[in-house]
Amino acid sequence: MFVRRPYPHNFDGMRHNSPMEKNGIVRKVDGLGRIVIPREFRKLHKIALGDPMEISCLDSGEIVLRKLDMTLALRELAMPVLPELARVAGVGILLCGRSEWLGGCGEGTERFSGALPEAAVRGMEERKGFCLDICGGVYFEPIAGDADVFGALCAYPANAPVAALRPAAAVLGGALQKF
Q1: Which among 55, 64, 105, 147 is most buried, taking Cβ atoms within 10 Å?
Q2: What proportion of the chain, given as a percentage, has pLDDT over 90?
Q3: Is the domain 71-177 a CATH 3.50.50.60 member?
Q4: Residue 31 has pLDDT above 80, yes or no
């Protein structure tokens, strides 16, 4: 006798929060070898246009697709440069990712930790330097590649000369674009 299971139960009789959680979604490969990532997955995992994705193949033959987190690469490339930038500029230099402070060098930079203000996140997307009134003023110079913004180099206080930030941010953006 066939028993119809009400949604959201799957064939194993277990209750799942999402119809995709157990069975996934089937997509066909198009003529150019592309597969569309379903909107539900992109939204759930915060995958945006231009985000780098890693594709790997397991020994079992399964293909794994995962969003690449550029924060670690940004930190590894930029943190060694911060002391020299702080020395040249004569101000505190900060590094931030797309949503959080990653570190800093110089007097007063220890005040900056945790999540970035929403205005900073929006400002970086414009890909131009800008100032925000945070702890007396911070100048942000976005670190951007061709398709994405990875974070920003920041000077504290904002009224200091920051000529060295723009070329440093451009070099970091170019290096991160190659990942």
Answers
A1: 105
A2: 36
A3: no
A4: yes
